[in-house]
Structures are given as C-alpha cells and as structure tokens.
Amino acid sequence: xxxxxxxxxxxxxxxxxxxxxxxxxxxxxxxxxxxxxxxxxxxxxxxxxxxxxxxxxxxxxxxxxxxxxxxxxxxxxxxxxxxxxxxxxxxxxxxxxxxxxxxxxxxxxxxxxxxxxxxxxxxxxxxxxxxxxxxxxxxxxxxxxxxxxxxxxxxxxxxxxxxxxxxxxxxxxxxxxxxxxxxxxxxxxx
Length: 190
Fold this sequence. Notes:
The protein is built from 5 helices and 8 strands, in the order ββαααβββαβαββ. It is an alpha+beta fold. The model has no long low-confidence stretch (mean pLDDT 95).
C-alpha cells in the first residue's frame, strides 16, 4: 500500500511558476476561482457564494493535506505571489497507487501554457515522489480545453459514462482520462 507523507509541504517550481501551499491570504482569489461563471462552467460543483465558502474550501484541502489524503497546490507566477489557480491530487486510492487530479485556472491566464507547465511538475511529483502508478482525470465532455490539456500531457481517454452524475437537477455525462506512470529507466550498461 502506498505510504504518503506531505510534511513538510512540497513546494514545486517550474520555469515560470511556484506551486505552493494555499493559505487564508488566498481567500479572495480562491473565491473568484470558485464563483466565476467561466471557471466553474465545467466543474459541475456548487459555486462559492461567499468568502466564508472559499475559506471553508481552504480548510477542507488543508485537512486532507494534514491527514495525507490529498494535496492541492496554489499556482502563482514566480514574480507575483498572487494565486492564479490550483492543481492537486485528491481521492487518492492508496491500495491502488492511484489518484485523481483536479485543476482550475484564472481565465486571464488561459492559453498561455500555465496549466500544462503546472501539470507536468505535479505529475512528476506524483509518479516520482509519491509513487503513484496511475493518475485519473474526470471531466465534463464539453470541456474540450481540458481534454486537449490532458491529451497533450499524455493522458488517454478511457471511458465516456452517460448520465452518471446528477448535478443541479439534471444527469450529466463524465469522461475519464488516465495516465500510467512512465517506466523507470535504469542507467548503466546491460
């Protein structure tokens, strides 16, 4: 079974980004992400209605982190600590070495390669540090931008479930993508 310990919090950096722990200081930016019509269009989750809702979301992800049940990074640019998005592993199945990845990004930063850069760093951490064998993504089939991101990152579409999710009075479809850990390479002569 997968043994997980997220202490100390693993801050990740890329060429342009800092992936860091979310704090109460991020509550206003997180409220925007969790309430904006464009950001939430395909997330099929209740929108945040208040700053308190956003603070509760921060508490929820920090509780998952504290219990080693999930990890969510806040995404910031290296030259600006303001939260512009988030990405993380939740629904970690320790017995199956598998986790579900989720992400959201401020619309002002779409189509700039930000989420692709963040996802590569998070997947690298998931496979090489946590020890995941596979990562799953569950998306709304109408979210073509998310599908393109997943495919660019190497995910394979595995299933399209019809009307398997009930949200706001209607049944919605779900599309499942997954990525298997790349094989470990060994150095030296054979």
